[in-house]
Amino acid sequence: MVDKVLAQVRVGPSELELREFDMPDVADDCALMRVEVAGICGTDVKMYKEQLKGAPIIMGHENIGILEKAGSEFLKRTGLKIGDRIFPEHYTSCGQCEHCHSGQYRHCIGTDWRFNPKGIRLGYTAIDNDHSPLLGGLSQYIYLPANAVVHKVPDGLDPELAGVVTPMANGIEWALFDCNVGYDTSVLIQGPGQQGLSQVVACKQAGASMIIVTGTAKDSRRLEIAKELGADVVIDVTAEDPLEKILEATNGRGVDVALDCTAGAGTKAILLGIEALKRKCGTLLIQGEMADFPNFPVGKVTVKAITIKSARGHSYKACELALKQLASKRFPLEKITTHRFALKDADVAIKAVGGAEDAIHVSIMPWM
Ligand SMILES: [Zn+2]
Ligand SMILES: [Zn+2]
User: Fold this and answer.
1) Is 343 found in the same domain as 305?
2) Percent of the chain residues past pLDDT 90, beyond the cut
């Protein structure tokens, strides 16, 4: 084992610094993971550009690696062994609140970096916290604090593919748990990035009978992959009238569920979702990309009796199901793991997400 740890530290807007940290001692109830893969997602792209609110941060919240060092309490609590391949959720758990007791750690105040300056969330927490500076995946090692929530990666699942667990867990959580997609459901998925494509797989596996995916002119390869993963209809919204095509595909009825997985589309995707939902009692899943929504059509939403759900991460169960889904090799998901970068190229990697036309799932491999 090396005695220094290399990590990329975000020191300002779109600015990383490769720094060396001491190899930490591991407390009895904590552990150290050798990072194999740190996935980059749209949230990273957005956060990367922002001003720091406090001390610098080691980003990277979609991490897969090997349990290399652990205290005896940690091993006892998790049932893991040294050498196991693991997926630590970026959420941590206080273990005491109503949310933690129901397996919904993501709602725990202890991991809420937005409202709690002491909140611990891997990839979001500043290096001057009380645990260890190494709380992000853009690093050779990541420190797993006492309240880390850790899943074992199934045997035979390649680490890069296992890195898709986070968008896949979100797919299961949002489409299946939040919006009740199941047998014979018709679904509109807007945005064919890793998040939208993971929703396609979750919906297909659950039995959806009509899966419609939208994208723009730059998404032609992504829309092709959507079809290969099980989408019935794909629409380039810059070339065709999406509402017309959705109604045509659903015999004029509209869809049961509309999921927004777009980035930078403004209010357009939500407005299309509202229009595309069936006459009564559809479900709309939204993301909070913009702070305000001028002229929100609240009249139409209530007349159509639409239920609005907020995209808010994943539960413990969704992660376990996502790992099983990936290990089943039932869908050609290796088509979405398109790009891998060394730690020194983290800046290029972050910019590749949402940049390069063929980039879908981008991984940083700190030991490459
Ligand atoms: Zn993410
Ligand atoms: Zn809690």
Assistant:
1) no
2) 92
| Residue 85 half-sphere exposure toward CB, CA atoms < 13 A | 15
CATH number of the domain encompassing residue 102: 3.90.180.10
Q: Which ligand is nearest to the CA of 91?
A: 2
Residue 12, beta-bridge partner list: 15
Q: What tokens appear for 275 in the block?
A: 């229009």
Comparing 253 with 355, the larger pLDDT belongs to 253
What is the distance in A from the centroid of ligand 2 to the CA of 94? 4
Query: How many angstroms is it from 39 CA to the middle of ligand 2?
Result: 25
Residue 15, token pair as written in the block: 């600015």
* pTM of full prediction above 0.85: yes
Position 324, amino acid? K
Q: Residue 170: nearest ligand to its CA?
A: 1
Judgement on whether residues 142 and 20 belong to the same structural domain of the protein: yes
Question: What separation in Å is there between the alpha carbon of 89 and the centre of ligand 2?
Answer: 14
CA 86–ligand 1 middle distance (angstroms) = 17
